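Memo to structure team: turn this sequence into structure tokens by end of day. - J.P.
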Amino acid sequence: MIQFSLFKPRKTLPLTPLPAKETLEDIFHSLNQRYFSGSVDAAIRWGRYGHRKKRVRRRTIRLGAYFFQSRVIRIHPVLAQDWIPRPVLETVIHHEMCHAAAPTQQRGCRRRHHHEEFQRLESNFEHHEWTQSWLKENLGRILDTLVSSRKRDSG
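Reply from structure team:
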């Protein structure tokens, strides 16, 4: 789950959609080399939109998930839209890669997914603060696109 800060973005980053030939795998491999020295061993795929009741507006969204047993990262397809800044997609992929690099810790009955080592790895991402602010500021717009796409699909 992405945690949002209360700070507004201090700088704007270019809205650069994925080049037509660039894939999630390309971004994964680039981030893997840059931040993890190629040590993250996982597959990456687009997820599904899921099954929700019509006319129910979501208040949250899971933008990415890492499945430990199968070593698969799934990214929500809402992030494939042209208006989503490239660093936002990258930070979600990087976040899930951090789960692979710093697995869940178990202490007694408690599981800690976002422990200190995980947070250290996550904070290394170049645009971490900016993307967290952007996501907080644009969450409503992201959720609205899910509602409008459902209306188009049913109409």
